[in-house]
Design goal:
Pfam families: HTH_1, LysR_substrate. The chain is an alpha/beta fold and 317 residues long. The protein is built from ten helices and twelve strands. It has three domains: 8-88, Arc Repressor Mutant, subunit A (Orthogonal Bundle); 97-177 and 281-315, Periplasmic binding protein-like II (D-Maltodextrin-Binding Protein, domain 2, 3-Layer(aba) Sandwich); 179-273, D-Maltodextrin-Binding Protein, domain 2 (3-Layer(aba) Sandwich), CATH 3.40.190.10. The strands form four sheets. The chain has a five-stranded mixed sheet. It has a three-stranded antiparallel sheet with strand order 10-7-11. Strands 1-2 form a two-stranded antiparallel sheet. Helix 8 (220-225) links the parallel strand 8 and strand 9.
Amino acid sequence: MVRRATSLANLDLNLLVILRELLRERNVTRAARQVGITQPAASAALGRLRRHFGDELLERTRGGFVLTPLGAQLATQIETVCAGVERLFSTDPAFRPEDSEREFVVLMPDYVLAALGEGLSRVMHGEAPGTRLHIKVVHEAMPSDLLETLRVIDGIVSVPMPRFQVTGIRALELFRDRWVCVVSADNPVGDSLELADLERLPWVVPHHPDGEYPATSPLAPLFARLSARPQVAVRVDSYQATPYFVAGTGRVAVMQRRLALRFADRPDLRVLECPGDPPPIVETLWWHAKNDEDDAHTWFRSMVARAAKDDCASGDR
């Protein structure tokens, strides 16, 4: 079907809002709730949109509604279009950090929080004291749908995972770290560890599920180098809590160097090099492409990068 160009004057731009929610939610009732209209009104809007595009946009299946190919194409465009319209009609289009009261929401593991949380707080307060931070800490695992999560928050700090490699997610490397081992000061192991020691000693492992260690874990490459599955003595949902379950025991923990160095002055702990040459830790900021041209978000990304750079400078001294 050949479609004619449509004049902007003939469009009901209110349909943009409901179209965005329909494509996001893939459910008429939930889309109506998000926009603040009744379900019949949302159904009527969907009918108008279907007539305009000459396409169903949403098709019913046994498992619920799914996007048609055209609906999926529109879903990749609608966020950018709506963000541009919102900026165009904003009463304060220019973002001024010194005057802003915007809240920025970012999800990160507690290890990253320890590494750059204080620095991020300082640089943001120095340049934009009215802005607010909402730090969400990862307790067990990253959200299953990262793209959808990044639609509603400003960013996620995480090591690269295949689930981040999808259209619509952007990335900025923040800093690199390496793995080290932490043992009790009275542990009879010497000043260096071998892979055989990691196979023999009981482990303290953060964010370990009740079962096999996930292949997507940052520690998975090191686990793969071991000839025997290590004995997990303590599972704890916190990187920062890990050393407390090593001190005074025969256990071992593999930790990020920047975090381990925070405990280096404790006389009851020793920090040793990690055997097996595990790959580096690459902490990365991930965000949704819809925020690419958002001046406030661009500023926020620069603050995160600056905090990471300052932490690297202090950590390398």
